[in-house]
Amino acid sequence: MLLEMKMKKRQEKPTLPSTVTELATEEGSKVYVVGTAHFSDSSKRDVVKTIQEVQPDVVVVELCQYRVSMLKMDERTLLKEAKEINLEKLQQAIKQNGLMSGLMQMLLLKVSAHITEQLGMAPGGEFREAFKEASKVPFCKFHLGDRPIPVTFKRAIAALSFWQKVKLAWGLCFLSDPISKDDVEKCKQKDLLEQMMAEMIGEFPDLHRTIVSERDIYLTYMLKQAAKRTELPRVSETEPRRCVPSVVVGVVGMGHVPGIEKNWNTDLNIQEIMSVPPPSTSSKILKFVIKATVFGLVGYGCYKVGQRTVRFILSMPVAQNYLQKLANIKPEL
Q: How far, in Å, CA of 131 to CA of 19, rounded?
């Protein structure tokens, strides 16, 4: 009965936002990819409208298991979390991704915190809306479609030269340009986004390959997996199995939509883009330099604190009296 209600609510010719791209599989399944800006109220509305119109069998979002917690956190908590970059988060990032990848993740989180502070809005609102709406659709599954973030960061770090890493870190550390809500909404325009990507390719082509192009492939693969034919519920075990084409809604950043369209009719193999290359010589050197610097600063700090502590103790009257008594003791012959 719930399935019948779902089919009745599903629109044959749905009225969809302009940010939705429709794709189809050879088996007849339909995939509606909603391109979003990650800090946008209108993107949330686009996601809600699309899911309500097509009543999907599966909703796929651009998240991995390492970022799934944002789906169940309230907006106020997320806003607070997104603004705070502290030592605990740094330690967690390094433990999860390794030293270099962890530091790069923290720099990117700093960028996200900068945007959050500028807009007063927590990231990922469209994914939370997708999660809520999917739970309202009968027999709708919810899938995480993004490559695990540790793999992405490790591959990104390995792809950059020593000086590219320094240049990128410097740029992210001193990011302070003001961002308005109008700027965020412009990110939903494909032409503007492609222009921004082109500028990024010119400076860090290998970074674009690992963070954008490879994830385009992974997201496409996951959308195709979700779009396999759906087996209808059976009343009893004796009833024959019946499969029908699926309806899928994908919620991804607008920057990934062109890549998904490009890869859609290609046979994809994600094994290569899931491998993590060994650290390069430059990464090992930089890692050693960072560790040596940290230990050096800690050692110097301990030395200065210890020096001040000794001076303070020696300046106390009790200590001076004790030292005076020691000085007056005559050795026995």
A: 19
pLDDT above 90 covers a percentage of the chain that reads 32
Place of tokens 């690992």: 210
Cβ contact 247:29 at 8 Å: yes
Look-up of token digits 């560790």? 291
CB contact set of 22 (below 8 Å; sequence gap of 6+): 16, 30, 31, 32, 33
In angstroms, what is the C-alpha Rg of the chain? Answer: 28
Residue 88: the pLDDT is 64
pLDDT of 289 over the 70 cut: no
What is the residue-averaged pLDDT of the chain?
77
User: Could you tell me which residues come within 8 angstroms of residue 241 by beta carbon, excluding any fewer than 6 positions away?
Assistant: 231, 232, 234
Average pLDDT over residues 136-155: 91
- Which of these, 156, 208, 191, lies nearest to 35 by C-alpha position? 191
Assess contact for 249 and 59: CB atoms under 8 A. yes
If one compares 83 and 227, the residue with the highest pLDDT of the two is 227
- CA-angle at 50, arms to 216 and 226, nearest 5°: 45
- Look up residue 90 and give its amino acid: L
Per DSSP, 316 falls in state: S
- Single out the residue of 127, 171, 152, 106 nearest to residue 39, CA to CA: 127
Q: Helix axis angle, 87-97 relative to 149-159, nearest 10°?
A: 80
Q: How is residue 295 written in tokens? A: 């230990």
| For residue 328, pLDDT beyond 80 | no
